[in-house]
Write a structure and sequence with these properties.
By secondary structure, the protein is α+β, with helices and mostly antiparallel strands. It is built from 2 helices and 4 strands, in the order H-E-E-H-E-E. It has a 4-stranded antiparallel sheet. The longest helix has 10 residues.
């Protein structure tokens, strides 16, 4: 989706979470958000990456567009 369109804000509201999501690769290793920022800016996403809000880990979102 479009940059700064509120996608993360919407996900935060849907799962009643706070803060920024943590990002994990397909093997469960935490990824530094600064590392994926350039690819997010270009619109490249890896569906194997998962976004999880620590305050409500019951929801897992994939990094796709």
């Amino acid at each position: 989706g479009r940059d700064s369109a509120g996608k993360t804000t919407l996900l935060r509201k849907v799962c009643n979470a706070a803060g920024k999501p943590e990002i994990f690769d397909g093997k469960g290793n935490k990824i530094n958000a600064d590392v994926v920022k350039p690819s997010v800016d270009r619109g490249y996403h890896d569906i194997n990456n998962e976004l999880v809000f620590r305050s409500n880990a019951g929801f897992v979102f994939d990094d796709s567009c």
